[in-house]
Amino acid sequence: MSHSAPHIAISAPLLAPAGSYRSAGIHTYIQHSLQHLPAADPDLRFTLFTAHPPAELPKSIEVRRPRWNTDRPVWRIVWEQSMLPWAARQADILHATAFVAPIVQRRPTVVTIYDLSFALFPQFFRDFNQAYLRAGTRWSARQAQRIIAISECARRDVHRLYDVPLDRIDVAYPGVDETLKRVELDRVQEFRRAKNLPDKFLLYLGTLEPRKNLAMLVRACAQLKRECPDVMLVLAGGVGWLADEIFAAIEECGVKDSVLLPGFVAAEEKALWYAAATAFVFPSLYEGFGMPPLEAMACGTSVVASNAASLPEVVGEAGVLLAPDDVRGWAAALTHVWTDAAYRAELADRGVRQAQQFSWRATSRQITQTYRHLIIAHQVPAA
Predict the structure, then answer these.
(1) What sections of 269-359 are H helices per DSSP?
(2) Residue 263's closest CA among 292, 281, 238?
(3) Residue of 99, 113, 79, 3 lying closest to 47 (CA atoms)
(4) Least CB-packed of 57, 71, 74, 138 within 10 Å?
(5) 3-state secondary structure of 40
């Protein structure tokens, strides 16, 4: 590629080491969209700034690592505000992939905003993180030439809270990893035996934190248990900030023997967890997109989710959507899914079709279209 090609500097300090608790959510979006960027627009040149480049990164993407450890939030913030503008000085466009761009920045900037949970639910965040994200994201959203949101819900939230014109905000939906698909029955049965899992269980997979509304789910499962004493709930994922109320709800509802907590799930095991579950449950109060329900649908698992924020965009007509505070409604819906195999099979088939609408190649194409918009608007010389 010619060095006269438009040059995109991509700042990705939230990429995490493989197997890390942080290697979920934002990490997944950045990692998979990077894999397809060069193919989406071969006439662009890319430089990635990160301490942890993905192993599958295309060779055409140049990698530059920070000179100090940016895994700690304070040092990451110092680096992206003081060193990144200098390190990326030769680029034509800077893409800040996680909410906040450098304040001192002379080149056209794209910022990816995944959700505004820190603004809408500040009580669920540490004070320093929440304050930096609130101030930094507000400033970045208003100053960036273009914004990438990951759903129409996130796009509307950025417009509503920060008064950014809608025509400056593009939507690049996440995709589904191609390894997440239906699994052969014998592999699923072997996985259940290896993990000592029951034949039937409800699965939640994600961070254990208040915004995920898991205390409500525990209460709903306690009601379900009155009609279905054999019900089991698996809460899989790393323990996040302020998770004590989840464990308190388990104790208070007397369902400790019916809840399994396997901890962080490695990416290579996700498909087996989804496939082994009777249904996937996701009662979150707010999501910028909501990857786990999409992944579960791709694996042929029926989904019961909240109707909050972006989740109707993800699930569509393929799953059961409920108000996140309706404990009785959740208990009734879960009873139906738990006891009716034909209904589960119908939801599973719908879910697979719904998941096929989302691909990482489409994500990367939209991101490069955003770059091209800026290249034209700012008259960046083409190759």
Answers:
(1) 270-276, 291-298, 311-315, 327-339, 341-355
(2) 238
(3) 3
(4) 74
(5) helix
**pLDDT tens, 238-297?**
998 789 999 999 999 999 999 999 999 988 999 999 999 999 999 999 999 999 999 999
This prediction has a pTM of 0.92
Structure tokens at 87: 């390190």
pLDDT at 91 over 70: yes
Selected from 2.60.40.1180, 2.40.50.140, 3.40.50.970, 3.40.50.2000, the CATH number assigned to the domain covering 185-355 reads: 3.40.50.2000
Separation of alpha carbons 127 and 204, rounded Å: 27
The whole-number pLDDT of residue 383 equals 55
Output the six-digit token pair for 345. 């099979």
Query: What are the extents of the domains in the chain?
Result: 7-175+359-377, 185-355
Average pLDDT, the chain: 94
Query: What phi and psi, each to the nearest 5 degrees, are found at residue 340?
Result: -120, 95
CATH tag for 7-175+359-377 (out of 3.20.20.450, 3.40.50.2300, 3.40.50.2000, 1.10.630.10): 3.40.50.2000
CA 110 to chain centre: 19
Q: What residues form DSSP beta bridges with 113? A: 149
The tens digit of pLDDT for each residue in 109-140 reads 999 999 999 999 988 877 777 888 999 999 99
